[in-house]
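Title: Prediction job returns without error message
Component: structure pipeline
Severity: low
Priority: P3
Assignee: unassigned

Description:
Job completed but the reporter wants confirmation the result is attached to the right record. Sequence as submitted:
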Amino acid sequence: MPADLAVIGLGHLGLPLAQAAVASGIETIAYDPRHTADLAAGRLPADEGALTAADLRRMLAGGFRPTSNPAELGRVRTAVICAPTPLGADGALDLSQVADAARELAARLRPHTTVILESPAYPGTTDELLRPLLEKGSGLRAGRDFHLAYSPGRLDPGSRTHGYANTPKVIGGLTPACTESAAAFYGRLTDKVVRARGPREAETVQLLETNYRHVNIALVNEMAVLCHDLGVDLWDVIRCAETKPFGFQAFRPGPGVGGHGIPLDPNYLPHHSRTPGHPLRMVGLAQEINHRMPQYVIQRAATLLNEHGKSARAARVLLLGVTYKPDLAGRQGSPANEIATRLMELGAAISYHDPYVPHWNVLGHPVPRADSLYEAAADADLTILLQPHRTYDLQSLTVKAQLLLDTRGATPVGAAHRL
């Protein structure tokens, strides 16, 4: 049967989009051969924390149809590409899965279809990569025979205040008609649609929003190190600073920066997209600072152990919360892996606890999972809180743990060593 929407790529962007569409009564198919069988059986992809199994069951009951048949892509009004674009070995975005999705779609593309790219991408990707692939494979012309647009993904997984409906959606189409067609689609899902001048502007919105987050986290991470050296309570500084009603937004330090929002360093832009002087040098510096945070956590951990007459070698270290965000199962970019790796290299005996992660491997070996959180904390020489899940009773944790390093400032003041 025909459907209104095809979502191509079922990850942290595609699944929430499909969920919102189904909830709005839009007939939705999902094309991602890697996950079709699991989704049809009610199983979420591994490391997908945005939805729950109950969410998926409701979607399936509401008519959501995962498919591995590419022919179905030619029977929809709107196709949204949400293929992942991970960082490659060279530090640049790997757009190969976007290109593969475009080729699959192009071979079945019909006139008057609206095609939207949501995957993280460089400015120019929609026009310079996606458009030629769609036109060559279909024989149709973008802006004349079919609509083409970009819309940056804007999701706050696990948020209780910001969902799909109340988060404005930015749209940039190849032509004004393309923009309006994409806006008409998203207008069925969200309360507000914001029209950008074109796809490059919409792509650059994502560049700005993601880099803004990473640069500000880098600033507060540097402040965390400075305040520790000065003997200043950073968390009190932030508490006071955020009372300023203008010109300040509070960010908080942590052991690293995880999540799917990858900062885009201009040094890795495609050559034809670069500008003389690469003006966003601050982004590269922010990445450097944030990448140092796991090692800083290790230094603080080793110092704390030494101050209590213990060595990192053979120390029993418990890691709490190994996901990239509280109360979610996703581990994309979580600093826990690097922290665990560095501790193991120092000779520490690592275990972990996370209610959302039943199994965890580091360096190809399974990490022992603590069955009883508070008994494990009492037994460990050092407990490191990496992610303060709501299920954790932090007051009890501070009482039970022999030695506690809180990297998120979540424990009561004075009850633990803070980052």
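Comment from assignee: result matches the submitted record. The chain has a mean pLDDT of 90.
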